[in-house]
Write a structure and sequence with these properties.
By secondary structure, this protein is an alpha+beta fold. It has 4 domains: 85 residues, conserved putative lor/sdh protein from methanococcus maripaludis s2 fold (Beta Barrel); 82 residues, Beta Barrel (Elongation Factor Tu (Ef-tu), domain 3); 51 residues, no CATH class; 74 residues, Helix Hairpins (Orthogonal Bundle), CATH 1.10.287. It contains 4 helices and 24 strands. Strands 3-12-15-14-13-16 form a 6-stranded antiparallel β-barrel. The protein has a 4-stranded antiparallel β-sheet with strand order 4-11-9-6, with no helix packed on it. The protein starts with a helix and ends in a 5-residue tail after the last strand.
Length: 369
């Protein structure tokens, strides 16, 4: 029995050891199955930071326009009796520009004044009747009904006078509408009607370019819009005489391209333009470089959270992402100027930044195969 038992214990020991090995293998397999797979390498679009002054600057051809240009028209319809100004005329604030035939409006004013005069006569009669009834009623000679009737007649007469006075004021305003006046100093750039014509209310009679300022207007392609932002500085010079120049800032960028030319319009407000920059002349505009302490990046590269602004920067050695806080000098829907946080040579992600994570491996589209 002793001899037979020893092999039995050995078999049991061997069997237990095999079971332990099988359990270890099974546990290892389960751990491998439950472990999360490594995240795939994410392809991203990037830009390499370079000083704005090093970026190539394009030039645009445009023209000078008035910053504020208004089409002046009569508020009422009528026949033009006289137009006092023509194209190119310099006008002052309040200066008459054109006049309608005022005969109909003046007749209405005379009628309104006559109505007011008649209402004044009725009011005086009602006041006298009310005063008599008041004395008689105080002495008990007349009835209360007669007194109240006189009181009501007085109120009605006063209301008629107020209505007639309002009618006179309206008629006077309408007579004033027969004269078209300049609402600001400026230069006439176009006329829309001639003396003798019957015009409707609202039809342009005189187009006035106000003297509040001048703009340089450029029509540029979509690629130039991406590199231009509101408040950017620009140098503007006459196309035929570069010595006549001025500086300005971009104050307006069209959000939609022209349906025919597919170009976007940029308006640059000029600072103290010289006399040679008259309305309509051709000019050449060149964007001025951004200050040396700023780097231009697409606005789509910014990540905003909890009041902080950051960008995703790619580590060139490991090809992984890291969030970098930045301080902006300027920001608009197309472009941002970073004052602090970036250095020349940094590789910044510019698309799909809201779905990225810190430490994520990436592949640079257009740079790596």
């Amino acid at each position: 029995m002793m001899d037979n038992g020893l092999p039995l214990r050995r078999v049991c020991r061997k069997s237990g050891a095999g079971t332990a090995v099988l359990l270890a293998l099974a546990l290892s397999a389960c751990q491998q199955e439950t472990a999360e797979p490594a995240p795939p390498v994410r392809p991203v679009r990037t830009v390499t930071i370079a000083p704005s002054a090093a970026q190539p600057l394009a030039s645009f051809t445009g023209r000078i326009e008035a910053r504020d240009q208004a089409s002046l028209a009569f508020r009422i319809s009528g026949r033009i009796a006289e137009r006092m100004v023509g194209i190119g005329a310099a006008v002052k604030d309040g200066q008459p520009l054109a006049r309608l035939d005022p005969e109909t409006e003046e007749n209405e004013l005379r009628s309104a004044r006559a109505t007011l005069s008649a209402a004044d006569g009725i009011l005086r009669q009602a006041e006298a009747a009310h005063e008599r009834q008041s004395h008689l009623y105080a002495r008990g000679v007349t009835s209360r009904a007669d007194f109240e009737q006189a009181e009501q007649a007085l109120k009605s007469a006063r209301a008629q006078v107020e209505a007639a006075a309002a009618g006179v004021r309206i008629a006077e305003d309408v007579v004033g509408f027969t004269v078209l006046k300049a609402d600001a100093p400026g230069v006439v750039t176009a006329v829309g009607a001639e003396p003798g014509e019957v015009v409707a209310a609202g039809r342009m009679i005189v187009q006035l370019a106000r003297r509040d300022g001048r703009d340089a207007v450029f029509d540029v392609p979509a690629g130039a819009i991406a590199a231009t932002g509101v408040d950017d500085r620009m140098s503007v010079a006459l196309a035929g005489n570069p010595g006549v120049a001025a500086t300005g800032r971009v104050r307006e960028i069209s959000p939609e391209a022209d349906p025919v030319t597919r170009l976007f319009r940029i308006r640059v407000g000029l600072v103290d333009p010289p006399e040679g920059m008259r309305l309509g002349v051709s000019v050449q505009g060149t964007p001025l470089p951004v200050e040396a302490d700023g780097f231009a990046i697409p606005a789509a590269a910014l990540v905003r959270a909890s009041g902080q602004t950051a960008v995703w920067v790619v580590d060139p050695a490991t090809r992984t992402l890291a969030a970098r806080p930045v301080e902006l000098a300027a920001d608009d829907p197309a472009r941002a100027i970073v004052r602090r946080g970036l250095a020349a040579g940094d590789v910044v992600v510019v698309a799909g930044v809201s779905t990225l994570k810190a430490g994520q491996a990436v592949r640079l589209v257009g740079v790596e195969p």
